[in-house]
C-alpha cells in the first residue's frame, strides 16, 4: 500500500487523466493550473525547502548576530533555495526511467511534468544558485565584511556535489556521505559571505566547520536509514543510520565549544544550556529512529525520516538563538508550521 502522500499524488494524476477523457467534466484553466502547481511542489519536495531556509539563515545569523549586511543575507538564502530545488528536480530527472517502473506516481514518471521542462528548470536553478551565491560575496558589506570569493567557491562545490549525488553516487555506498556533504556545504554557504581570505588563517573558524560537519553527519545518518524506506524489513542500514544520526545530534550539541572560550557574544552557555536545548530537540528524532530499527515497517521508517528532516528547522533555530537571540530563533522556528502543513499533502522523502 502506498504512503498517504503518494496515494494522493496518484489520485491527482488519475483524476486528471480520467477527466481529460470526458468533455463534460473537463477542468477549467484554474483547476489545471492548481494541478500543475501541485506537481511542481511535489517535484521540488516543497516541505523540505524550509529546512534549507533554516540552516542557511542560521549559519549567517550565528556568525553575524543578525541579518546584517542584509543584501548578502538575502542573496545567500535565495542561492541556497535555488540550489536545493535544482537538486530535487535533477534527482527525479536522473531517476525517471527507474521511477516509471517502480514509482510511477512521481510527477515525471507519471507524465504530469514534461521531462524537457524539468531538465530546463533543474539546470537553470543550478546555474542561478551558483551565480546568486557568488554575487553575495560582492554585495555591499560595509567595513566589517570586505569583498569575498568564498561564496562563489562554496556554491560551485555544492553544485558539483548535488550533481554527483543525483547522478553517479546515488546507487553506491557513498550516497549517504554525498548527501551529508551537500548539507555541510549548505551550512557553509550561509556563513561564507561573512569571511574573507586571511593569510595564515583557515577559511572558516573551527566552530563553523564543526557545526557544518555535525549537520552533515546528522543528514548522512537519516539518508542511510532512508535507503530502506520504500520496502522496510531488517537491514544493517537501519541500526547504522541510527548510530550515525545520534552521533550527528551529539556533534550538533557540542560543536560550538570549538570556539574554545573566545568571547563570541552568544546568548547562552555552550557548555550546559545549549547542549540541553539540542538534546531536547533531538530526543523525538532518536525515539522515532529506534522505533524504526525495532519495527522496520515502511511507515515507521518513513515517519522517522520525516521527523528527522523536519527537525533540522528547530535545530537550526537553536543556532539562530545562540547567535542572534530569541527573535530570530522564533522566526526560524516558525518555518516548522508551513513545512508541517505542506508535509501532510506532499512527500518529504
TrEMBL record:
It holds the Pfam family UbiA. This is Prenyltransferase. It is a multi-pass membrane protein. It is found in: Membrane. Keywords: Cell membrane, Membrane, Transferase, Transmembrane, Transmembrane helix. GO terms for molecular function: transferase activity, transferring alkyl or aryl (other than methyl) groups. Coiled coil: none annotated. Its main location: membrane. One of its GO terms (cellular component) is membrane. InterPro entries: Prenyltransferase_related, UbiA_prenyltransferase, UbiA_sf. The chain crosses the membrane at residues 43-64, 70-90, 120-139, 145-165, 177-200, 206-226, 238-258, 273-291, 303-322, 328-348. PANTHER family: CHLOROPHYLL SYNTHASE, CHLOROPHYLL SYNTHASE, CHLOROPLASTIC.
